[in-house]
Amino acid sequence: MSWLKPAVVTLILLGTLALLPLVVPVLSPENFLRYQAKLPFKIQPDEKSMLAEPMPHYYSWSFGWEEMVLAVAKAYESMPAEERADTAIFGNDFGAAGAIDLIGPKYGLPKAIGGHQSYWLWGPRHYSGQTIILVGGTP
Amino acid sequence: MRNIRASGRDIPFTPLGYMRAQILLMTPVTLPVWVLGALYFFFRQEAKRFRILGWTFIGVLAVFIVLHGKDYYAAPVYPMALASDAIVIEQLWRPNG
Fold first, then answer.
1. What 3-state class would DSSP assign to A56?
2. A76 and A84 in contact (C-beta within 8 Å)?
3. pTM for the full model?
């Protein structure tokens, strides 16, 4: 049975390589769609929002953040300056809040606030809560 | 998890669907590795001391099937089955060693 160990390692490496695009976004979106169509099984959606999307979240959620942040920046800029100073940008989930924090600075946006999972650790920052721009979801 | 259920965000897995997702999560080629690893805790005399790990393995999967967890919630349970299967493979590799 001396072949067993190298055989197990080889098999696991090959199997991992074959399914790597399912867990790590190594393919371009176009190539992933082609890959997905060739899979001998279907990826079972585990969230309802996946039903309307052609790709699993770890691919589909890499789109649209720039546009979203830009829309927030427009809303933010349209506010009177004195009100803007006390306007919090509330990200309804960590995706929205994270996008504001990551992309927001180049549009002059302050850090977001949010309550999703451990995002609450950052607290309400210095805002009074008088004015809030809500990003994602309904109030 | 109660809040997630209340929000209606998820499409809950059936028990079979959950196990199917587990196989995919671990990549299918490793199926014999972790299944044998889990069985090792129950069927080997020298593993008797560690049988609780086998029950933990089954218990964690059962909890997430019943409570409708996501597939990856069960991920941390696999290293111990991989570790015990390493013993199985080692014993097959060196039957007398």
1. coil
2. yes
3. 0.78
- The candidate with the shortest Cα–Cα distance to A94, out of A55, A57, A52, is A57
Separation in Å, CA B29 to CA A32, B36, B78, B83: 21, 13, 14, 16
Contact B89 A5 (CB under 8 A): yes
At residue A134, the 3 state secondary structure works out as strand
CB of B34 less than 8 A from some CB of A: no
On whether the CB atoms of residues A89 and A72 are closer than 8 A, the answer is yes
Residue range A54-109, pLDDT digits in tens = 888 888 888 999 999 999 999 999 999 999 999 999 999 999 999 999 999 999 99
Q: The tokens of A139 are what?
A: 């109030």
| Bridge partners (DSSP) listed for residue A90 | A113, A134
Can you say how many angstroms the Cα of residue A87 is from the centroid of all Cα atoms in its chain?
A: 24
Is there a contact between B29 and A22 if contact means CB atoms under 8 Å apart? no
Q: Domain coordinates of chain A in residue numbers?
A: 4-60, 67-135
In angstroms, the Cα distances linking B79 to A4, A6, A127, B37, B85 are 20, 20, 45, 10, 10
